[in-house]
Specification:
The chain is built from four helices and three strands; from the N terminus they run βααββαα. About 40% of the residues lie in helices and about 10% in strands. A three-stranded antiparallel sheet has the order 1-3-2. The radius of gyration is 18 Å and the shape is elongated. By secondary structure, it is of the alpha+beta class.
Length: about 80
């Protein structure tokens, strides 16, 4: 694909983010927050180049998505175990 194309596929996104294609594919599979929202064109994941640039700008400025998951508990200490 030419450089002036507005649609970016996995290889192009990996290059833009400085990651490997494998890590981008794994990120898609896991639904990580360090990837911009994608869409599917046939069987391929795609991003609009403009959306990726906006995502990167927002990520740089600290407007990244909140982390999801269970809140972590503090691990027990030796004092807690001896009781």
């Amino acid at each position: 694909m030419s450089e002036d194309c507005e649609v970016v596929f996995v290889a192009g996104l990996a290059k833009m983010l400085g990651r490997t294609e494998a890590s981008v594919r794994e990120g898609i599979r896991r639904g990580v927050d360090w990837l911009p929202k994608s869409f599917r064109m046939g069987s391929r994941h795609c991003w609009l180049k403009q959306d990726v640039r906006v995502f990167l700008t927002e990520y740089r400025d600290g407007k990244k998505a909140p982390r999801v998951g269970r809140p972590r508990q503090t691990p027990p200490t030796l004092r807690d175990i001896r009781g």
